[in-house]
Design a protein that fits this description.
By secondary structure, the protein is an alpha+beta fold. Helix content is about 15%, strand content about 30%. The protein has one domain. The chain has helices spanning about 60-70, 105-115, and strands spanning about 35-40, 45-55, 80-90, 95-105. A hairpin with a 4-residue loop joins strand 1 and strand 2. The protein is globular, with a radius of gyration of 17 Å. About 15% of the residues are buried.
Length: about 120
């Protein structure tokens, strides 16, 4: 990703997440490979929600969504994994929401160990 220098001036393009770096020049689009992906943690449901904003780029793949969710935007703890639940189109038709359950890897290992004993 482009590093911001003290003398940089804002790009002036509306609708971008960062005023210095265009979406297509950042990780949130895998540098222009797919629509913008933003990761959120819903604490009430203990789910990860990834909003895919239609920005005129190709739709994201599951692999890209997982890369973003486990990268700089990571919201779930270490020793957990994400399990895909569903995707829903927003009412505005401008975004798709992808939902993931957060599952503890430690609990899975402990449960498997108890079963084999």
């Amino acid at each position: 990703m482009k590093s911001i220098q003290p003398n940089d001036t804002p790009h002036g393009v509306p609708g971008q997440i960062n005023i210095y770096v265009l979406d297509v020049d950042s990780e949130i689009t895998s540098y222009g490979k797919h629509n913008r992906l933003l990761v959120f943690l819903d604490r009430a449901s203990n789910q990860i929600e990834i909003r895919e904003d239609n920005r005129g780029l190709p739709a994201s793949t599951e692999a890209y969504r997982r890369k973003i969710a486990n990268g700089d935007q990571r919201m779930h703890p270490k020793n957990t994994r994400l399990t895909y639940l569903r995707s829903e189109q927003s009412d505005s038709q401008k975004s798709i929401w992808h939902y993931y359950a957060i599952e503890s890897l430690l609990r899975c290992v402990t449960q498997q160990h108890e079963v084999t004993q």
